[in-house]
Amino acid sequence: MAYNVLWTTAGVAILGFGALYVTDASAGVHKYVVTPMLHLLDPEKSHEVATLAMKLGLSPKDRKVDDERLHVELWGKKLSNPIGMAAGFDKNCSVTDALFDLGFGVVEVGSVTPEPQASGSVGNPKPRLFRLPTSEAVINRMGLNNVGFEVAKERLRTRFWRRVINQSKAERLNASELADSINKSGFVDRLLGVNISKNHTASSESYEDYLKGIAELGPYADYLVINVSCPNVKNLGANSRTDVLEKTVFSAVAARDALPNKPPVVIKISPDNSDNQLRAIAKVALQAKVDGIITTNTTPKRPSTLAGDEATIKQHGGLSGTPLKPMALETTRKMYQLTKGQIPIVGCGGIRNADDAIAFARAGATIVQMYTGFIYQGPGVVREIKDDIVEKLQGKSWKDIIGKDVNS
Predict the structure, then answer these.
(1) Whole-number Å distance between alpha carbons of 44 and 317
(2) Cβ(222)–Cβ(183) below 8 Å
(3) Cα dihedral sign for 55, 268, 249, 253?
(4) Domain of life, per the record (predicted)?
């Protein structure tokens, strides 16, 4: 009898510890087993499997509390850490909470367009996503495939109220009062961004789709991103044409001002702008009083450092990952200088470790975003980067190094 009890207890303990290990994002099994297994699949199928696991609650979680030295303020709100998930991973606003559970301080969903753009209709045909493992790079020509404003709005609304109601029960607070006092992310120290773009049928000069997105999705966003720079669609003229950019940005800010919650308006620009274009963008951003600039989107260029299968390299689409970093970093530095540090910069492009994140901060980025690095290294990379940043700061705080290379 005692023998059976002993073995039963040992079995339960082993299962318990095993479950605790597997559900920890930092566990090596995710980096060395799960992620390589996913990479045996077609890139888009791999993404579908990963997001399905997240929807089913099978993804791991970051169990550690963020160090105070990672805290940073953005748009008057405190973030527990400056590491964000870039737009593109959660296009359909379906795994937002699972991404927050991985430890991201910011999660940006989208891009979302007014009408759905799915594969086989308006979205680009498959295959449209390609890996270059040697360079830790990805080429995509997804074509802004997404479920559209209506579905995205309902998902954002549902997740927000689910979090509010759960918190109000736990804290014995009125749900409506709590809803007015917390971030749309549902966390006191995390932010949710919503990235908005245009349907393929819209003209290059138009900006009405952005205004629709602000009105429909703005109430559920901590910040809104006006995507003017995706290289995989031909009608985003605002990045390269100053006249279109000016009308778009001023109209977007005015539309935001009509919302009760008035979320910050951020523009996402290309890494391929000339110095003259960057000066024009900075001038418009300052005049319109935009709240942030994301540097940068993907690039259609193929840097000389890019290595891998030649046929894949020649695929049409936007390049992301490690080879993009020098371009994105330089754009970050120039935009910080041109805006004189008056507009928060979100650094994005080729970030895969703490050194990369710190480099962007020193170039002027208040926070950073990643995507491709996450794909190659798995869910534990978020905690790994955060821990390594703290170690490399050597007693300093993240906010102490923002713009350090530019201001010194």
Answers:
(1) 14
(2) yes
(3) positive
(4) Eukaryota
Q: Where are the beta strands (DSSP E) in 305-358?
A: 318-321, 345-348
Give me the amino acid identity at 68: E
Distance CA 404, CA 297 (A): 24
Q: What is the DSSP letter of 93?
A: S
The residue type found at 23 is T
Q: Give the pLDDT of the chain (408 residues) as one tens digit per residue.
A: 554 544 444 443 344 444 444 688 888 888 999 999 999 999 999 999 999 999 999 999 999 999 999 999 999 999 999 999 999 999 999 999 999 999 999 999 999 999 999 754 445 788 999 999 999 999 999 989 999 999 999 999 999 999 999 888 888 888 888 888 899 999 999 999 999 999 988 988 899 999 999 999 999 999 999 998 887 777 666 667 888 899 999 999 999 999 999 999 999 999 999 999 999 999 999 999 999 999 999 999 999 999 999 999 999 999 999 999 999 999 999 999 999 999 999 999 999 999 999 999 999 999 999 999 999 999 999 999 999 999 999 999 999 999 999 976
Distance CA 279, CA 295 (A): 14
Q: Is residue 108 classed as helix, strand or coil in its secondary structure?
A: strand
Cα–Cα nearest to 200, from 235, 239, 231 = 235
Q: How far apart are CA 34 and CA 378, in angstroms?
A: 8
Q: Give the span between the Cα atoms of 81 and 320, in whole angstroms.
A: 23
Task: Give the N- to C-terminal CA distance of the chain in Å, as an integer.
Answer: 73
Is residue 292 within 8 Å of 269, Cβ to Cβ? no
Locate all alpha helices (DSSP H) within 174-274, ordered by sequence: 175-181, 208-217, 242-257
Rounded Cα–Cα distance for residues 111 and 91 (Å): 6
Provide the residue count of the chain.
408
